[in-house]
Amino acid sequence: MLAVRALVVDFDGTACLQDVSEVLLAAFCEPGWEAYDEAVDRGEMGLREAARHQAAMLHGSREEMLAHALAHAELDPTFPPFVAWAQERGLPLELVSDGFAFYIRPILERAGLGHLPVVTNEMVFDGRPRLRHPNGHPECVGCRTCKMLAVQRLRESAGPVAFVGEGQSDRYGALYADVVFAKDALVRICERDGVPYRPWRTFDDVRVELEALRELPGPVAPARCPGWLASA
Fold it and tell me: Which residues are CB-neighbours of 49 under 8 A, at least 6 positions away?
């Protein structure tokens, strides 16, 4: 039996090779959107506030941006076989994204993966685009989608959770997972936070590691998420 009982996978840059939100910002946003990412990196602003500013700078319609996303985004080719492997073993797999979100379901459906559960934001197109956060924390406003809560909920319902990610928005999911697979920016973040991790490049790497894994590091699970920001 596998040591983990559930899987949480980031979408942008993880299940999908591209960060689709950044692809859209580069194509449809007014100049200066990068400054908000830099403010997040410096700890001056939460992810939710940064996205609010960036979404308001987008000037394309939903149809235009979705067409662009579908033309420029592709799933990691090792992800669909990984999904099939997880399903054969009865492992729940949830995609958890803190991005602009509206493109995720169409990209999945194109690959025959429209059945996967997705925990994410909601982009509203009525005038300038804006984000709603149905999966945010009820008190903290630091992130748009609370990956900490997503991991905790699945852990409570299914058992030990493996988290697969690559970037800044994955930090708080990684802190509460039983085992973490990290690449790119998440490697540096895990090292800074003292989170044990396994490096990965493809989902074949993740599958092989999970099949061999007998003991789990367990979650770091600080009593209070370090990204906590209370509303004013």
Answer: 36, 141
Per-residue model confidence as pLDDT tens digits over 195-206:
999 999 999 999
Q: How many domains does one find in the chain?
A: 1
- Assessment of whether the complete model's pTM goes beyond 0.85: yes
Is pLDDT above 90 for 35? yes
Q: What is the CATH number of the domain that holds 196?
A: 3.40.50.1000
Does 54 reside within a domain? no
Strands laid side by side in the 179-182 sheet: 118-119, 93-96, 6-10, 161-165, 179-182, 198-199
Q: Give the separation between CA 11 and CA 166, rounded to whole angstroms.
A: 9
Asked if residue 221 has pLDDT above 70, the reply is: yes
Which structural domain, as residue segments, surrounds residue 148?
6-18+75-212
